[in-house]
Amino acid sequence: METEFVKIVREHDLIRPGQKLLVAVSGGPDSVALLALFRRQAQLLGISLAAAHLDHGIRRESAEDARFVKDLCAELGIELICGEADVPALAQARKEGLEAAGRQARMDFLVQSAEAHGCDKIALGHHRGDQVETVLHRLLRGSGVSGLAAMAWQRDRFIRPLLGFARERLLDFLVEQRLPYRLDASNCDPAFTRNRIRHQLLPLLRSFNPRIEEHLADFSQRVALEEDYWRQQESQALAAARRPCDSGLRLDRQVLLSLQPALRIRVLRRALELARGDLLALGADHLEAVEALLFKPRPQADLHLPRAWVGRRYESVWFRPSAPEEPEPFDFSIPGPGSYALPDGRRLEFLLTAAGREAPDALEFSLEDVAFPLQVRSFRPGDRFRPDGDGGEK
Amino acid sequence: METEFVKIVREHDLIRPGQKLLVAVSGGPDSVALLALFRRQAQLLGISLAAAHLDHGIRRESAEDARFVKDLCAELGIELICGEADVPALAQARKEGLEAAGRQARMDFLVQSAEAHGCDKIALGHHRGDQVETVLHRLLRGSGVSGLAAMAWQRDRFIRPLLGFARERLLDFLVEQRLPYRLDASNCDPAFTRNRIRHQLLPLLRSFNPRIEEHLADFSQRVALEEDYWRQQESQALAAARRPCDSGLRLDRQVLLSLQPALRIRVLRRALELARGDLLALGADHLEAVEALLFKPRPQADLHLPRAWVGRRYESVWFRPSAPEEPEPFDFSIPGPGSYALPDGRRLEFLLTAAGREAPDALEFSLEDVAFPLQVRSFRPGDRFRPDGDGGEK
Question: Judged by CB atoms within 8 Å, which residues 83-122 of B form the interface with A?
């Protein structure tokens, strides 16, 4: 197993000789195995090590976990960075669940610790079982293809060297090395979906196919590889559809309509991701609603989604975090050329020019046809104009 | 439900007014519901109907099934085409399983019946439950992404108008319409994987998410849409990599190496599909072996796969159903210009020419440097030549 571990670290270029690694240690079997593997192979890999543990204050056992990790690191002779966080308070402040708040606090703590102690990489203990449970969890919740992509071996400063190992192999290694570990009490409570997946669903799936975990892990690796390709295709198509605009994103409707449907849906999702910053709480239904906006005969329509606004304006589709504010209406008369303040802070510059510029979005009047004072006001429902003098009006 | 049924038939353009439809009827609930729905909506849809039933001779009940379908069609006033097949004998002759042989016999019978009775389309009774069970079955067996693509609403002459309906809705419709049906005895035997999926796995999945079947059906629809895009991309990349050759397929190694890895694996699979005619019995391991051939430093290597041969020859990769035959060795002397038979049936034309043609694959000799008789023989291991006179040899 140790040979395989070193091979994986090298093949995926997870850390290089001369670098310093921070190992995240909760005290559970996965992170203890991770720490021990790196401890035994640090010399061969030419790296130096430190460990980090966050006391999250969620369960009563958290102080005991911290004590356990301290003893373990002392015994292994590894520098330990300890931190504390009041996750329940954070969760309340951010209106998040305990799990999400705990994950965020842990990540923040790890990144700060790595900075403070000059660590180049941070190792996480996720193994194949976590990968498989995540895939099943997402599938059960109704995820699309993208959601089934495997966790990355490496992302930013984080590495996951155990992704290729089954939980059972890590446990065997711990027994072999006579290493102690702490069991998370919540792991044994089948009320949590994650634990029901582990203790009810996976055993049933294994009765269909004893190699199911290997298959599902391979499956998610293949999906991750295909997602890389999709991201390329999405970027290309998005660049082709994008039009200049002040804020948010403006896409050309005709370019979107010309895309293959699967790519189009992905480009719309990507546009929403860019406008909002993430995809949380967006589902397939929302994307279908955006797509419907493109195909509707109505040339102007608005769509209000969670933390996003999508507006169709003829051949443009706008994506913004929120609907643009209605401009404050105005109505005043001007005696002649000059500079006039509008109620929203903008200014209207009115000047006379010799060189006219008639264009689809500009209209030229001869000074003889204009009589001051002029009345200047914002659009009102019911206003009409004749674009071309051809008898039609809008 | 009937309104929804008509809407689906029209939206997916499954059959048009004036056409004749053949409905495949086994006697089970799905096909009875399918027949009854079309019977009730035939006038609205402007189509005419016939039914077809194959007595497959697998179980003792098959004669009773045939009798049941005859009575049902007589009562509904629908023309019935009956056929018989000895599926166990066919399976033995073709060395296939009963299920595969039965499916093939049924498809052949339906296509022939449609031809003989002037039917434009053939309706099959697959519903959402079948779709979901297929996805789970494939996932359990270790399928890749492509294997999870939904059945098509329409393919060739076959249509599947019930794909959007859950089994329960079809059963409710049958009760409402007081329609009888036959239950396949094999459906209740949990020894078959398919039935274990239905009676053990799906109930557990529903306890995680009551809408799991809807989710999985949507998931497979999205995969099918994305597969369409992949097929386009594969075709483009394959066309770019393809080089002329006599038989099988020859691809340019450099073009293959330049592809994004997920696309490359798919192009290799497509090449194998074209060389063999199908992808049966090919797995991810085989594809990885073909890919390894591209990256190996050895410029010449052969790979023998089930019903396929892949050969790397420097910058070319060949795909064939079987390895090319080794040419019969020859060794003879020729007294001068003329035409000489080779043992494999080809001929060697030897002539003198005034206009020389020196090229990377052709060598020019002056007649003064050549002394007859010349010895002509095929390649032997150990033969060496100096390509450029620059001191190097091969």
Answer: none
Residue B149 per-residue DSSP state: P
* Angstrom distance (rounded) from CA A21 to CA A35: 10
CA distance B374 to B332: 8
Residues 6+ apart with CB under 8 A from B81: B22, B50, B51, B52, B53, B113, B116, B117
pLDDT at A93 over 70: yes
* Closest by CA position to A162, among listed A1, A43, A47: A1
Considering only CB atoms, A140 lies closest to which of B140, B193, B209, namely B209
In angstroms, the CA A91 to CA A73 distance is 30
* pLDDT tens-place string over residues B208-234: 999 999 999 999 999 999 999 999 999
Q: CB B254: neighbour CB atoms within 10 A?
A: 10
Q: Which two tokens stand for residue A214?
A: 């290997």
How high is the pLDDT of residue B188? 52
The ipTM of this complex is: 0.79
Structure tokens, A343: 């109620």
Mark yes or no for CB contact B193/A205 under 8 Å: no
Q: B50 CB contacts (<8 Å, ≥6 apart)?
A: B20, B21, B22, B23, B78, B79, B80, B81, B117, B119
Q: Is the dihedral of CA A178, A182, A187, A189 positive or negative?
A: positive
pLDDT recorded at residue A361: 63
A313 touches chain B (CB under 8 A): no
Beta carbons within 10 angstroms of residue B69's beta carbon: 24
d(CA A164, CA A166): 7
The strand pairing partners of A23, in sequence order, are A51, A123
Cα distance between residue B310 and residue B301, in whole Å: 8
Q: How far apart (Å, rounded) are the C-alpha atoms in residues B234 and B146?
A: 13
Mean pLDDT along residues A118-139? 95
> Is the CB of residue B185 less than 8 Å from the CB of residue B60?
no
Residue owning tokens 């594969």 = B234
Of B215, B226, B261, the CB nearest to A145: B226
